[in-house]
Amino acid sequence: MTDTPLVEMRHIQKSYGRVHALRDVNLTIRRGEIVGLLGDNGAGKSTLIKVLSGAVPYTSGEIRIKGQPVTMTSTNDAISAGIETIYQDSALVPQLSIARNLFLGRELTKGSLGRLDLDRMNQVAADLLKRVGISKNIPPTTPIGSLSGGERQAVAIARAMYFDSDLIILDEPTNNLGVAETQGVLRFVREARDTGHSCIFIAHNIHHVFQVVDRMVVMRRGTVVADDLSPKTSSIQDVEDVITGDHILV
């Protein structure tokens, strides 16, 4: 069924002892949809994303992918289900090159002996860096440890682009990025939608969110307080009021 949502999170609860990080959260992501996930610090955004990406177990509730119930017990479960998550501090190995980090654990090989195809990995890496807006001519053999924070973030985003996941979760993807790199990220998000992929876009910079999303979901104190805000019909001030609780949608 084409109408089946890509992702459904139903009645998700997450507790740490007496602390309720998530309270009866429902979230639906459709195919080819870009959803902005917004809220102040402590609203529950990061916990929700960690649950969906398999990094944190949930206390109760259900997750469905393409209509089928799934159990997320590890990040590998999420990757197998077509979900790729890019955190602010995405794990990269400083000593390895840009190209090797892009293909870490999924290296390209050649020949019957399965030797690493370094030439191919370097070429793909060079092309991807241009797509995410790194205008400087940085060789793909450059060690990650010598890059700026923004450049490292761009490499992590490039990795998700190449492996073509159904859902790409971007946690503060424009944080610490320069203007060109930020525009590269936003361009990538639009490309993802145009090719039928879905994204969850988490950012404190609402101006960036408004440029790319189809719909905005706002969380406050572990609950979803709005899930159908449109950048076409809501102003930035409207959304900020919902985030802070100064305006309650009826």
Question: Care to describe what's here?
Answer:
Helix 4 packs across helix 5 and helix 5 (149-163) runs parallel beside helix 6 (179-194). The protein has a domain at 7-91 and 165-244: P-loop containing nucleotide triphosphate hydrolases (Rossmann fold, 3-Layer(aba) Sandwich). A 6-stranded mixed beta sheet has the order 6-9-10-3-11-12, sandwiched between helices. Strands 2-1-4-5 form a 4-stranded antiparallel beta sheet, covered by helices on one side. A two-stranded antiparallel ribbon has the order 7-8. The longest helix has 16 residues, at 179-194. It has 8 helices and 12 strands. The mean pLDDT is 87. The two termini are 32 Å apart. It has 250 residues and is of the alpha/beta class.
Q: Count of DSSP helices? A: 8
Mean pLDDT across all amino acids: 87
Architecture of the domain at 7-91 and 165-244, according to CATH?
A: 3-Layer(aba) Sandwich
Per the CATH scheme, the topology name of the domain at 7-91 and 165-244 is Rossmann fold
The order of strands across the largest sheet is 6-9-10-3-11-12
Span between N and C termini? 32 Å
Give me a quick take on this structure.
The chain has 250 residues and is an alpha/beta fold. The chain contains 8 helices and 12 strands.
Features:
32% helix; 250 residues; 8 helices; globular; 26% strand; 4-stranded antiparallel sheet; Rossmann fold
